[in-house]
Each structure stands twice: as structure tokens, then as C-alpha cells.
Amino acid sequence: MRNxxxxxxAASATTAFAQFSAGNLAVAVVGDGQTPTTSNMAVSIRQYxxxxxxxGSDLSLNNLAGGRNITTTYGETSEANLSxxxxxxxxxxxxxxxxxxGAGFNTITTNRAVGRVDMNGNVEVGAAFQAxxxxxxRAVWSNDGTDxxxxxxxxGVLRGNFPGSPSRVVSTAYSTRTIKAFGNGxxxxxxxxxxxxxxxxxxxxxxxxxxxxxxxxxxARDFVVVDAxxxxxATSTGSAGLIKMTxxxxxxxxxxxxxxxxxxxxxxxxxxVYATASNGTTILSTVDNGSGFGSWTTLATAxxxxxxxxxxxxxxxxxxxxxxxxxxxxxxxxxxx
Length: 337
Hints:
- By secondary structure, the chain is mainly β.
- It has a single domain, classed as TolB, C-terminal domain (Neuraminidase, 6 Propeller), CATH 2.120.10.
- The chain has two helices and 27 strands.
- The chain has helices at about 1-5, 325-335; strands spanning about 10-15, 25-30, 40, 45-50, 55-60, 70-75, 85, 90-95, 110-120, 120-125, 140, 145-150, 155-160, 165-170, 175-180, 185-195, 195-205, 210-215, 220-225, 230-235, 240-245, 250-260, 265-270, 270-275, 280-285, 295-300, 305-315.
- A five-stranded antiparallel β-sheet has the order 1-10-9-8-7, with no helix packed on it. A four-stranded antiparallel β-sheet has the order 5-4-2-27, with no helix packed on it. A four-stranded antiparallel β-sheet has the order 11-12-13-14, with no helix packed on it.
- Strand 16 and strand 17 (about 195-205) form a beta hairpin.
- The two termini are about 20 Å apart.
């Protein structure tokens, strides 16, 4: 039945796009080079080498088969987040299912949609849905491209199965930005992840538990789960920038940071950390040397009227990246109820 459901997707492959190559960077780009407006803007995925050279043409997520779209607002630094599925087979991304600069755009009532992109550049978009408040879909995490969890401002956390519509599993009381697998559960961050603070919380499928407030009240946008005891936290607060958080057996504490610029998206590969600036103008890199970060290096600069947002490292084919069985555990709980 699952294979039949996949056929219900609207699929599109862009022939000019070079398939993703392991070790390169996949970056979400918002804007079409024309003067941005307050309505929804084009989203594409662009591939770069780790030295900042563009590879092939952009992969558009707009005007796909059946008229489907993934568009986002130009100024929202948490939208157009890009995630890699736990099994390394898909990039996932969400937004509005409305044509670029579409008439009647509204951040509350416009339909949302979740998309997945395989390593050959094939794009599939699930059913359009209403989210009951919040912003556009900010981030989507999936273990294997089937079940998924998504965040979106004041709509809490939603769970769905491609290609169907999602349902809420975390209350709208939580303003959420990014969610990732962690052990047998998930971590999400937000502007009121707990107690009205900028911070991080653990969701085990049933209960939300406070983990830690982002140091200094910085506004976390994205994060990377390095292992059970290490997180890289991207904040849009310039003085905080990139923060390394470690678990000391009792609590999460800041190890060190690299300030100087706010960060929107973050990814890592070994000791190298890649990021997009929160103003969307640059792709950056640094090195974690174990006792601190090196200085920022600019890899690429966005063209006029475009912005960089989400970023991921393309995995080796067949690499299993799942850090836990979070979605499987959540599905099992739902079946037992």
C-alpha cells in the first residue's frame, strides 16, 4: 500500500540539474532575482562544492507537475529550512502550496505542503493542508521519507505520512522552529520552547520536557545533533552566532561559540561546520578544533534579491544516518492507543 501511496505524489525532475554528489553542499535559495514582495517567493535547491563553486543549475520547487509548489516568505529566516532524512536518501523541506507571488497569500490561511527530494533531484510534494495558525512550515524531519514531523511557529509540531496531511502532536502553545531525531525521541527549538524563553525541548512522542535555554537568550534557528552529548546551535543573534552545546552528565552547557554574524542554517561534516548567514547573503564555513572554532570563511555570496536559507551536506550513497528510532517509536505508541 505504501508504494501505491507514493504514486500519488506530484513528481518533477529538472533535467538541467546535476544529481547530488556526496560531500557537496545542498542549499535552499529563496527568491527569483526579482524585487521581493511581502507575498510568497520562489524556493530552489542549489548545489555547491565545499570550496563554494556552484554545481549545475538550480532545482526549482515551484510550478511542479499538477501545479504544486513549495514557496516561502522572503523575510522569515526560519523558513526554507532543509533537512536530510535519517537514512540519507532524501532532503525534506516545507512551505506554502501557492504559486510564486500568488494572489491571496496569507501566512495563516494559505495551504502548506511538505516536499521531499531524492539524490537524483526528483521532487515529490505531499497533500496540501491547513495548519491552524503558525507561520509557514519551518522545518521537516523524516527518518526514511515516509513518516515525518514538521515545525511551524505557533502551530506546534505536526506529524504526517507522505503523501497525506499531518495532525498535531505538540500543542500550539509551543512556537517551534526546527526538529531533529534524538535517541528514541526528538529535540525541537523555538521562541517559547518552554516558559516563554528561547530554548530547546525534548519530545518523546507524548511529553514535552525542557532541555535548556539558549545561552544568553539568543534566538536559535537551526541545530545539528552531532551525537548524544553534542549539539551545534545556529542563532540569528550576531554576538552568539554558532554555539557548541555539550552534555556533562547532568545538564547541557555551552562549550564555546563563534560570534560575529547571525546564522540561519547549519550542517557539519567531521570537524567542518557549514552555515548560512541569517541575513541570507553568504554561505560560511569554520572548523571545530576541539577547543574552539576557527574564524568564518565565506564560501559563496547570494545574488541580488535572493537569500540562502537551509543547508545540508550530501551524504555518501547508502549511508545510514538515523540517530534513533524516534518516528518508529512514535508510530508504535500511536498503534497501541
